[in-house]
Specification:
single chain; alpha/beta; 23 strands
Length: about 425
């Protein structure tokens, strides 16, 4: 699967393109801004682009009105197809948000139900009670997503609805040649629907990538034979920033060991979780971390730990955004990308990750661990890489068995001698390929 060897970059198109929050149906061409950022995406050594919702919606994109039409605030289907062609010409694969758990109140089939009630042919696409009323005075009650009644829950056990959704996916591949889907609230999606979606996509396009949003629990429930290829690794997302802020790298080491360690009981050995330090739903990492100096270190961890790394636009240069101030603060329209020391560091890490078979596919084993230092080994496909992080303000000499006398720093190309311990400067990270 191509995604296991890739570095992802995420854009939230509605915010990124400066679209108004509410959709009044006014058409405006904005989507081509993505094309302007292709050189930056390439410079970040990303080769896959994950786009948050692009289809016609009521407001934020996860409240779909029409699965077959690009949001009028962004442009037309033809304009988006041109963007996808340019991305593919540049060697960048395209993964879209698949929002199949719920729709917006403006969804055409739901509007038909509100108008025609029991006589609507789409009444069984939703969970309805015609004997009650909604908070919107519809004259009927419907189930919403987790109490959010602007989001109307879909009945994914309805065959006609599933056929419709799959036909939309087929249309996205035919019109835009997309390479995969990120499934919104995958943890709440009907399991039979997920199995059917996987089988359909397998026959639709070779190596069509399916990654699901999952917060907690056993990720193997969705990431299994005939299921999804990957899920979002929220366990390690929390563990990463919390470990640095609390000066307790034991936390993230425990999560990584639980997920990928050498023991027989390890949960996800050989699987590829979708890793991130922030995204469109959470505060940006530069806001969450208590020390700016730890930004370099947390990205080093992101690109050296097992899994698929994803970078959220703007965070690679240290943009801030507080979830408590509302979602729009997390999804801004930057005029242009910023080139600074942090973004160049992230780009170098991405390049090292893609070039290393061990970092993409190798095993995980902790070699040295203290509150502020973490050294671990990735080994696989004839390569061994040692990642070392020193989050302290003082230098540290790490003693461990490297099973080899010398190595090469993947980021600087400098030779490294493991004899007598490995010296780590303050607030530093290194990636050594063992010779």
């Amino acid at each position: 699967m191509w995604a296991y060897d890739s570095v992802f970059y995420q854009l939230y198109p509605l915010g990124f393109c400066g679209a108004p929050w509410e959709n009044d149906g006014t058409a405006y061409s904005r989507i081509s801004k993505i094309t302007d950022w292709i050189p930056h995406i390439i410079s970040m050594n990303a080769d896959a682009l994950y786009l948050s919702p692009v289809f016609e919606s009521d407001a934020h994109g996860y409240d779909t009105r029409d699965y077959t039409k690009i949001d009028s605030r962004l442009g037309t289907n033809e304009e988006f197809a041109a963007v996808c062609r340019e991305l593919h010409r540049s060697g960048i694969r395209v993964v879209l948000d698949g929002v199949f758990h719920h729709v917006g109140r403006g969804f055409w089939a739901f509007r038909d139900v509100v108008e025609k009630r029991e006589s609507s042919p789409y009444r069984d696409w939703f969970f309805l009670d015609f004997g009650r009323d909604s908070g919107y005075g519809d004259g009927l009650w419907y189930e919403g997503w987790e109490g959010h009644y602007e989001l109307v829950k879909l009945n994914l056990r309805n065959g006609e609805l599933v056929d419709y959704l799959l036909s939309c996916v087929r249309g996205w591949v035919e019109q835009f040649d997309i390479d995969g889907l990120r499934l919104d609230v995958a943890y709440s999606l009907d399991r039979e629907f997920l199995s059917r979606l996987r089988a359909f996509c397998d026959g639709l396009k070779p190596e069509f990538f399916l990654v699901g949003e999952m917060l907690h629990g056993d990720y193997r429930l969705l990431m299994r034979e005939g299921g999804l290829h990957s899920v979002t690794n929220y366990e390690c997302y929390k563990g990463m920033y919390s470990s640095f802020n609390s000066r307790n790298l034991f936390e993230i080491a425990h999560s990584l060991g639980r997920q990928f360690g050498p023991e027989d009981w390890t949960l996800y050995k050989g699987l590829h979780l979708f890793n991130f330090v922030d995204n469109h739903d959470v505060s940006r990492i530069a806001t969450l971390l208590t020390r700016w100096e730890h930004l370099r270190l947390i990205y080093a961890l992101l690109f050296s730990m097992p899994g698929i790394p994803c970078v959220y636009y703007g965070s690679e240069w240290g943009a801030e955004g507080d979830k408590a101030q509302g979602d729009p603060r997390l999804r801004p329209a930057f005029d242009k990308p910023v080139d600074n020391e942090l973004s160049r560091w992230v780009a170098a890490l991405a390049q090292a990750h893609k070039r290393s078979r061990a970092l993409c596919h190798g095993s995980f084993r902790v070699l040295c661990l203290t509150n502020e230092q973490l050294v671990f080994e990735r080994e696989g496909e004839g390569e061994r890489v040692i990642a070392a992080i020193n989050a302290a303000d003082q230098p540290y000499t790490a003693h461990f068995d490297a099973r080899g006398g010398r190595g090469t720093d993947l980021l600087t190309g400098k030779a490294h001698d493991f004899g007598g311990g490995s010296g780590l400067p303050p607030l530093s990270a290194a990636l050594w390929r063992v010779d």
